[in-house]
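Troubleshooting: if your tokenizer reports a length mismatch, compare your output against this known-good record of 182 residues.
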Amino acid sequence: MPGCGICPVSHHLAAAKAGDAVLGVQIPPTAKKLRELMHMGQFLQSHALHFFHLASPDLLLGFDADPAKRNVVGLIAENRNWRQGCDATQARSTDHRDARREESTSTFAIPGGVNRALTHAQQEEILKQIDGAIADVQLAVGIIKDYLEKNGRSLHFRLIRLRLHGLTDDDGNLDLYDGTLR
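Known-good structure output:
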């Protein structure tokens, strides 16, 4: 099932879950964990792309910055670490797309579960990517921390009460796969 390009896994899982509901089946626990793992992988990738490529130019350079400089290239010019984050995020995104072409995830989640178990090689590949994902998060936190230390006094935050919805578990924690609407 094609999606917009940033969150195709979410669309794919929503379709599989709809199939589960139509058929009235409850998927096995292992299949649910594999679906959740697939979803969290996409979640990490899409948030890294969003942070490093989409939102940060506005947030870190300011909405009033020159639009010609308020972009990823402008951020890289101001902070060498940004280049590292963009490169790492792009490499992981490419790895993710290559993996999808190699073993299509577009048919992984099916009504009733998943269509195959992970091979040992696939498990090892996932494990090898954990350190890189952690490094990306640490880099992003470091960049924001440095920015706040330098510019924190000029930032103005305020509480805005909104009526937003989200998916949560029974304890109110974020649950993107199987949460209830709150």
